Amino acid sequence: MSTLQTATPSAAALDSNKTDESIAVVANQWQLIWWKFRKHKLAMLGGSVTFVIYFVALFADFFAPFPPNAYASNYTYAPPQQLHILDQTEDGLRLQPYVNGYKVEIDYNAGRRNFVVDPEVKIPVGFFVEGEPYKILGLIDANIHLIGPLHADDPMYLLGADRLGQDVFSRTIYGARISMTIGLVGVAMSLVFGVLLGGISGYFGGWVDTLIQRVIEFLQSIPSIPLWIGLAASIPVDVPPLQVYFLITIILSVIGWTGLARVVRGKFYALKSEDFVKAARLDGCSSLRIILRHMVPSFLSHIIAVVTLAIPGMIIAETSLSFLGIGLRTPVVSWGVLLQEAQNIRAISTAPWLFWPGVGVVIAVLALNFLGDGLRDAADPYA
Q1: SS3 category, 125
Q2: Is the pTM here over 0.85, yes or no?
Q3: Centroid of chain to Cα 351
């Protein structure tokens, strides 16, 4: 005769459940967002890649072997050299990084000389080598570079050279500094316009809302590329490069705030009838304080997600303007400026390595989009 047995949870299991429940109860909004965000594998990958790109851009002087405008006319359109870590010697393999040198071949049909990697010539390469002096963050003098040739006169072009004999690898690293920061600065300015004008529109309503929304609709109705071209072309040619950088940033910000303003307006319409907003109003808080101190923090996670997804648009906009020749100009080094070198048939047919800055754009945009998607999903941890 079988007897019924009822399984009773052990004390350890009960304690574990109580611990999990207590953790869930005391977890704040940001902890819940982080727990949900780290479950998004692509978002974690995108965040890691984004961090690496910004870290390299911040310390570009250290990571780049050469200055951005250093050139060697003897190595125009030199092909990429493969970096070898181990060197085969008579005594066996030893740890000595090197790249192979070049030999020149004359193309009599085309009437030009071509560089070919010579496997017989080995150029020693070192890590943390001394090179051109620079300032870390513009403050601290230094001259150590992550990688470079042991002899300063030896050629080292890991991603090839352009028409002036400039190192594409170094210029791509320096280009990340401009292209990635213009996205941050532009989005920061768009954030101010979008939150302020969108908040005023949704909070007050009436004729204020109507006026701001008509302005937004007018800006959104204008084709983006012709508007960019018209505004960017209005910048005089003799304007210094640094001023051009800030003017392009302002142009992108003036155009890019409308989408965020619409999102903020919708949120404010939903929140302005909430009890905490009414309590703040009865307590005598000013409208600006209610908007900035009470309403905006209540959906700050959504704003972060929207801003993260807006940065790739800023990067592509700057790259497109500079590629067309109406954005940033040399001697400023950005990914769009570098891609101007790939506009001719010579680059497409014989120097495809000039497209490497475009690969940087693709990787950065994909990483930021993955990060933004993860933040957008995690912004509502209860969904």
Answers
A1: strand
A2: no
A3: 26
284 Ramachandran zone, left/alpha/beta (phi>0; psi -120 to 50): left
Q: pLDDT digits over 10-57, tens only?
A: 555 545 554 444 454 566 767 777 888 888 889 899 999 999 999 999
Query: Do residues 197 and 330 both lie within one domain?
Result: yes
The full DSSP string for 317-338 is HHHHHHHTTSSS-TTS--HHHH
Q: Please give the structure tokens belonging to residue 267.
A: 């949120």
- Helical H segments across the chain, by residue range: 11-26, 29-37, 41-58, 60-63, 168-204, 206-221, 224-233, 241-256, 258-271, 275-282, 287-289, 300-323, 335-339, 345-350, 356-378
Residues 316 and 213 in one domain: yes
**Number of domains into which the chain is organized:** 2
Annotate 75-94 with b (16+ C-beta within 10 A) or e (fewer). bbbbbbbeeeeeeeeeeeee
- Kindly state the helix (H) or strand (E) to which residue 146 belongs, with its residue range: strand 140-149
Q: CA-to-CA distance for 308 and 6, rounded, in angstroms?
A: 53
Q: Which amino acid is at 21?
A: E
- Rounded-to-integer distance, Cα 300 and Cα 378, Å: 12
Give yes or no: residues 265 and 363 share one domain.
yes
Using CA atoms, how far residue 297 sits from 35, 284, 292, in Å, is 20, 19, 7
Give the CA angle between residues 36, 299, 383 to the nearest 5°. 35
Q: Which residues have CB under 8 Å from 42's CB, separation 6+? A: 370, 373, 374
Contact 56, 176 (CB under 8 A): yes
